[in-house]
Amino acid sequence: MWVVADDQSINVVESPEFRELLLFLGDGKLEDRDIPHRDKMTSMILDAHALEYQKMRKDLKNALGRISFTMDLWTDPNLTPFMAVTAHYYARKPDEGIAYRSGLVAFHYTPGGHSGDELSQHFFKIMDDLDVLHKIGSLTMDNASNNNTLMAAIELKLQELDIPFSADGNRIRCFPHVVNLACGAIIQELKKLATEKATNYEFDYIIDQPDWHLYLDALESDLIARVRALVAACRKSSQRRQDLQKIIREGNNKGLWAGKIRNPFPKDDPNVLRPLQLLRDCETRWSSIYLMITRFLYLYPAIQMFLLERSQSDLRDCLLDEHEISVLEDIHQVLHVAHLVQELLSGERTPTLSIALPTYELLISKWKDLKRTIPELAPFIGQGIRKIEEYMAETRKSRIYAHAMDEQKAAKKARDDAEDISIVERELLMWETDSLLTVPSFGDLTSFWAQWIYYQLKHLRDLVAQELDYTLEGGVTDAAFSELYDGGKFKELEELLANLEVSSS
């Protein structure tokens, strides 16, 4: 129904204009009594919900194996709290085979407190209503402390029903959230430097480097907070936004940005700025600080010109000098690595459980490299590394990650085995498809050998002559070729081909 799908008010069906529109579209085949009023619409929605809910319960009950769930809390603009639960499972297809399915199974109103015990009661009720308590597999959620209590409470309730469940073993910690917490630790430590003395940090090994004090001054100025304030100032009014866009366009027309654009978009003209707006960060949005800095650095040539205009004289103190921009780029580089990892682990349709631990290790490795290349930021990067290691220790309490990696390895082997067709076999298939070769009669192969268009078979004569002695005055006899083909000795031919390619290279 459009009313539900588009989140419309049920009262929309009472609008005279809306009803007239439907009658007009009905072209005389629809009367006013055919259009439901709000009471009827409410009844239809509730009936449809009951029907779909029972269908969903049946699908979940018939799921193959256990069902994995993801759970998170959400608050609407009126600060009304809800618990959203999605299910992920395998089901048998009507014809044959199995299919992966996922979908929202609950959007549950959660009044009152949000302690782990209280949230576990809401979750337990959802599972009980769906009749899947005995099929609960893994539960994915963020790393909030109340979720630890929630998992312990669920474990206790299920054990009372003799249903196996482990608060640690059946829990999957949200991977991108872990990365976000690590970035938050780095940013928080940078913020502390602006209010604490630098002697609290391990800077002794770089204290005598040239320009160190300039770098330290830039860090102590709280660059991220300054960027945030500057973005807010540039977005404060529609007039300022329009003025910035005007400067971008004029600069493009006059070629003012040549050689000044940092990190241009791929395939873009590196001397032309896109007419984009600055981005604000949001505490609850992952990578938002990274994205804010990315856009700021990209547009900074235009921002700088904008702030130097006479009409914006009150904003000139917000300008960053070139040294401060360089330090900001270092911070951006640290966050960029984490952003790439976060994007990799945020796949919606691609299973990422098997790569979680290896990706954490990769992030730690890259951050350790940056500690060496940007030693000025080493103490702050170390905070992020410690946060990742902290959650890796929690993650290793569950064997599900090892199982996922093992399953991924087995699935890859199965795919490789299914695609294991030799090079020569594929090439012969191409010949047959193009009607260049008729099997089993090959004709006089040596007479048109020079016309063969496929790379692998161009070398086959020399291979066979060299390795199998199926030659007649340096050429391959039709009988020899037929014997190899009809005998299904494609692997042997492929090995010969590989030997030739190695020797020729």
Automatic annotation (TrEMBL):
Q: What is a single cellular component term in the Gene Ontology annotation?
A: nucleus
Where is the protein situated, by its record's location annotation?
Nucleus
- Membrane-spanning residues where? none
Q: Keywords in UniProt for this one?
A: Metal-binding, Nucleus, Zinc, Zinc-finger
Instruction: Name it.
Output: AC transposase
Keyword check for Zinc-finger: yes
Species = Candolleomyces eurysporus
Please give the Gene Ontology molecular function terms for this protein.
Answer: zinc ion binding
The record, for InterPro entries, names: RNaseH-like_sf, ZnF_BED_domain_contain
Would you say which domain of life the source belongs to? Eukaryota
| Keyword field contains Nucleus | yes
